[in-house]
Amino acid sequence: MEVQIFGVKKSADTRKALRFFSERRIKTHFVDFAERPASPSELRRFAQRYGVDALIDRASRPFASLGMRHAAISEERWLDKLAEEPLMLRMPLVREIGPGAKGLTIGLAEEEWRQWTTT
User: Fold this and answer.
1) Euclidean distance between CA atoms 69 and 67, whole angstroms
2) Residue 68: its pLDDT value, please?
3) Which of these, 14, 28, 55, 115, has the minimum number of CB atoms within 10 Å of its CB?
4) Would you give the DSSP letter of residue 72?
5) What global pTM score does this model have?
6) In this structure, are residues 106 and 90 in contact, taking their beta carbons and an 8 Å threshold?
7) From its phi and psi, is residue 107 left (phi > 0), alpha (psi between -120 and 50) or beta?
8) Is pLDDT at 22 greater than 90 in this prediction?
9) What is 40-57 written as a DSSP string?
10) Distance between CA atoms of 15 and 24, rounded to whole angstroms?
11) Percent of the chain with pLDDT over 70
C-alpha cells in the first residue's frame, strides 16, 4: 500500500497524516503545495467524490482576506481559485495509490485510514 498526501508542512493535520502513515511503515508521496501548487485536475478528483464545498476551509485566513465569504462562482472557477490559493484548502488531501486503490479523504480522517491499512 502507498498513499499520496497533499498539503503544506506548516499544517498540523498534514503533519499528523504524515506521522500516521510513517508509524505504520506505509510508503508516502508528499506533495507540498508551498513548493508545487495543486492543479485543478488533482483537486477535481476530490471534488468529484466530496463536492467542491468540502475542499474549502472557510475558517482559513486566506479565505477571509480574499473576501470569498460571499463569492458566487462556479465549481470550476473554485477549483482554479483553490489551485492558486492552496491555503484555502482543507488539508491534508490523502489518496491511496496503486492497483485497485479507491481511498480518498479530505482533512484528518484517521479512522478511514485505519480501515485502509487493515484491508
Assistant:
1) 6
2) 61
3) 115
4) -
5) 0.84
6) yes
7) left
8) yes
9) HHHHHHHHHHH-HHHHB-
10) 14
11) 87
Q: What is the CATH number for 70?
A: 3.40.30.10
Exposed/middle/buried for 104, CB within 10 Å: 0-12, 13-18, 19+?
Answer: middle
Whole-angstrom distance, CA of residue 33 vs CA of residue 118: 29
The count of structural domains within the chain is: 1
> Count of residues for the chain?
119
Distance from the Cα of residue 46 to its chain's centroid: 8
* The predicted structure's pLDDT at residue 23: 94
**Nearest alpha carbon to residue 93 among 10, 17, 9, 12:** 17
Query: Does 62 or 108 have the greater pLDDT score?
Result: 108
Domain extent for 84? 2-118
User: What percentage of the chain's residues is helix, strand, coil (to nearest 5)?
Assistant: 45, 20, 35
